Amino acid sequence: MAHSQTDVAVTAAVAVVACGAAASGAPTAVMIVLGIALFAAPGYLLSQLLLSARIAGLERVAVATGLALCVPILGGVLLNAAGVPLHRPAWLGLIAGLTLVGDVAVFVRRRVGRAAPFTWRPRRIRLAPWHAAAFAAAVLVAAGGLGLARVGAAIQPQPGFTQLWLSTRYAKDHIAQLGVTNDQGSATRYRLVLLRNSHVSETWNLTLADGQTWQRTVPFSANDKLAANLYRPPDLTHPYRYVATYSTTAPRS
Amino acid sequence: MTVAGESVGRQPAMSGGRGDATRAPAARSRMSVSVVALIAATGVLVVAAAYTAGRLGHASAPWADRMYWLGQSLILAPVAARLFSRRALTPGETLTLIVILTVAEYLVKVCYSPTSFTYVDELMHWRTTADILQTGKLFTVNNLLPISPYYPGLEEVTSALASITGLSIFPCGLIVAGVAHLMFVCVLYVLFRHVSGSHRIAGIAVLVYASSSLFQSFDSMFVYQTLAVPFLGLTVLAVWRLASPKTVGNRVGWFTVAVLSALATVVTHHVTSYLLVATLEVTTLGSLLAGDRASAAWASLLALVSAAAFAAWIVFVAPSTVGYLQPAVQGALDGVRTLLTGGHSSAPPPTSAASGPLGNRVLAGVAVLTMSALLPIGWWQVWRRYRRQSWVVALAIGSVSWYFIVAVRLAVADGSELAGRASTFVFVPAAFIAALAVYRLIGSALRWRFISSALRWRAPAVVAAAVVGALVLVFDGLANGWPPYWERLPGPYQVAGVERSVGPEQLASANWALAALGPGNRIATDIGDMSVLGSYGDQTPILDVSSLYISPTFTTAAAQRVQTESVGFVLVDRRLSEQLPASGQYFSDDPQAGHYTHPLPLAGLTKFDHVPGVARIYDSGNIVIYNLLGSQYYGS
């Protein structure tokens, strides 16, 4: 067989290794490389089965890419119809399974002489060193553009804010969720005052780091009217945020 | 076949007649494609710098805007110059040039939103993808775009990639959209090259295609059409191969490719599926007119297969497609009917080019006139050189649709939106026919005695004129496409904008709504908060709610709206009382669109604090969410 089935061996190995890596919980960096290779494998094999060896270059690449994308689209519909949940095992099974089936088909077709053997004769591209350097510089400059855009998005000034909520999603259980999240961009001090029927029920002095959330469950009865005022010291006169709720089981007017 | 003047090997790039100076062997260009790539990459960097300037508070500064256009010029001008140049150009170089153009423009699009999806349609598909990842099922509920889950091709590929690699949806979406966009351009190039027999004409056609108003934006976004159009192209390419006499013995393979691509189109996008059938029908017509029975037979067979698959998908999987498309189709038909009967439908919305800056309008006018003039010249070329070639005849027939979308753009209500969406498809034949015209015009210009008598010195002026023409066309697409001129650069929050209305506070409120309230609640909201609330928040935004916000008091009409629309929650963004809407409308269905002269009254936004039974459950400063479920108005 020599090198005539090298591509079959490589794609089969990609399928098996990708499944093994996924099963063993390989890191994302490894799975990115294996996953993209696995994605491409059935498209390549289908193009070997369906296209003449005379179709080459861009046209073959485009068709192989299209066929590779067809696999999850049409295969996903079939799996869903069969009631198979579309999670990692299903996708891996579909794509790796089809790759291995394609490997067998290509292998057999070549053995019986109905398909051209694999050959690796890349055209020699005579690229002058300074052309190669210019292309490499182009890649670096474009990557720099992307990096600059990401940095720009990261340093874009955004006004800070604080979220306060008092929700009664579980009203039938007479429990309200009271919470504060600090998105001011730095650690912030708060005073939170819970009012029950207009009387102070509880007070909390909070210091929250940026991004930190504070939450409590607040029991209430059918006749309770709850409100919460959030202050930012030193101003303890004017509520910085406020929320108010009620008992959803209360009779309507 | 080879077109006269094809730049292959040592033949001249742009020539035509006998005995002229352009018959001399063409020299190599001094600007290699590697230099073009470097200049284009610099263009990307300059545009990224303009975007960063916008984010840092200079979004309205003229210099930042000029920096953006400078970057675009650096991307486009060298590519156009090499394609139009009379210097030799190999097929590999032509391909490299169009790949450079496509990748550079895609990177510009990525630089606009480099950390997450911010465009409303992308957010809609993000939601469907997230649902597939979470539930493992197709056809889930998408409150923002209910039709999307029934055409899940894009989301299947993205969720498969995300599941296998462990990456999040955003990078996977960028990979899928980028690969699909590049694949479409490459398939287009291959088709144009097969049909014309000239890689240079194919390259010019792709350059003209890039002037479509959505090429740099919508056509490369994470939306279902982006993945569907390359399958349309692949189906058409397979039909071309099936009809080609050289394909003897390999037809089963190409037929399989055609059927798989057609099925993938059907599963991925409704309008593209319909246009696939239409494209194949036009190809059949062109083939019949040119007497090419093989091409007509294969095109009609694949049209039949595609139509059957699309019909079966609608009947058995996505019956809501009809109801989804019907209003848009009806609106367009009504507009055309009004146009044909001599009337004029209502004015285009304020976001259209018709009411944009004067420069945009001038650019649009010049571009429309340029294309309008090029197409007849291209048809003349078809008649002279290609009238026996069925595919060129089909493209000539298809290019007539360009005038149709011009009429729609100028005379139909919301015409810019419709024309823009159609341009993805209409520009395919129009770009090819225009490329034939451009190729002919440059060749003719180089043969003029005035030019040919001093070709070395005067030919560059011809090429420069062609480059300027190309820049005008592409700049029109950029200026009057997406993002709109008032959001060309990213920047600070804008009331009722598009991507500049997606900020941390919106994201926080949407995430809170999903976590605290659960999915699918019916929430009244403005247009700026709608996309994030419906996607990340997985809520059901109610569109026709302006009456809830405008009046300073809670009126009977507002109460009736709450009741009829079953409004469970109201999201109020206090900034609606501080700025006029960037898009001209505060709400998705806004009867006052384009007529606002003052921001909304603050009392209209805060009145819910005083409505009996309404709870104020969330407050983040600018955004407040009210719960109406316990009020006397909800569901009574």
Structure described in brief:
Chain A is α+β, with helices and mostly antiparallel strands.
Would you give an account of this structure?
The complex is a heterodimer of chains A (253) and B (636). By secondary structure, chain A is an alpha+beta fold. Chain A folds into two domains: 3-111; 161-244, Sandwich (Immunoglobulin-like). Chain A is 46% helix and 22% strand. Chain A has helices spanning 6-23, 28-50, 57-81, 88-111, 129-155, and strands spanning 161-170, 175-183, 188-196, 199-208, 213-219, 226-231, 241-244. Chain A is elongated. Mean pLDDT of chain A is 90; it is low at 247-253. Chain B is mostly helical and 636 residues long. In chain B, strands 2-1-3-5-4 form a five-stranded mixed sheet, with helices on one face. In chain B, strand 1 (522-524), helix 20 (527-535) and strand 2 (540-542) form a beta-alpha-beta unit. In chain B, helix 2 packs across helix 18 (455-479), helix 3 runs antiparallel to helix 6 and helix 10 (270-289) packs antiparallel against helix 11. The termini of chain B are far apart. The model of chain B is unreliable at 1-13, 15-23 and 344-354 (pLDDT under 50).
Defining traits:
heterodimer, A: 253 residues, alpha+beta, Immunoglobulin-like, 2 domains, four-stranded antiparallel beta sheet, three-stranded antiparallel beta sheet, 7 strands, 46% helix, disordered C terminus, B: 636 residues, mainly alpha, five-stranded mixed beta sheet, 23 helices, disordered N terminus
